Amino acid sequence: MTTIALQMPTAMRRKEATDEPAWVRRTLIGVALAFLTLFLFVPLISVFYEALKKGVDVYLAAIMEPDAMHAIQLTLTAAAIAVPLNLVFGLAAAWAIAKFEFWGKNLLTTLIDLPFSVSPVVSGLIYVLIFGLQGWLGPWLAENDLKIIFAVPGIVLATIFVTVPFIARELIPLMQAQGTEEEEAAVVLGANGWQIFFRVTLPNVKWGLLYGTILCNARAMGEFGAVSVVSGHIRGSTNTLPLHVEILYNEYNFAAAFAVASLLALLALVTLALKTFVESKTRQSGGECQ
Known about the structure:
By secondary structure, the chain is mainly α. 81% of the residues lie in helices and 0% in strands. Helix 5 packs across helix 8 and helix 6 crosses helix 8. The radius of gyration is 24 Å and the shape is globular. The two termini are 38 Å apart.
């Protein structure tokens, strides 16, 4: 009886805080739906409408065009290099920050967040200042016939920079919430460091890791600002999908521009579907994706 009496005020307060009139709930839902319709659904539908307006043949021709195919290949290459590297770094950084105490821990956490606070264009300019022909390492690179800026390596570096936080930032709060009790128990039972990581730590964060990887891949394939600065916009050579869309649009080739843009829109939809699936799996396993 005492427990019930203590719980009743809390339940009553919760009811008072959420029991709004029906018109308030409907207004909020209506505003949210109107916002999503105006700024999300209408533009998304417009992309596919404009892409298919002149027919499927024109749509397929725009995608199969050599420059478009090269842009697709380069985008996939940059993502295929950047995402695994960020996966390794994100796992290592999150494991170190969440499970250990060391000097410079706060600095490492701050540096991981740096790409969120720096404009992608600025990050691209940084690479130009370092690796460009007039940059710090430019003369040495030119003497050794090494090309980073206006070439694939520069695109990969810029992509890695802008996608650094996604996996680490997904795993750090998840590992911190789980604590170190299971790892300590594994140590007592005689497990070494790698056994603890692969049999205890990694299984506990597998869905959060997949969630962060999905977001990292989506950002890598859709990055525009940093890649635009370091690529040089060389058609058929250093143009990724977003840059190719820009060139087609500036040339008033709207059907082809929207056709290629629809590939990025499809990527966004696939990412959303995978994100929803991973979130449901995370909830079922008792984890949390933030």
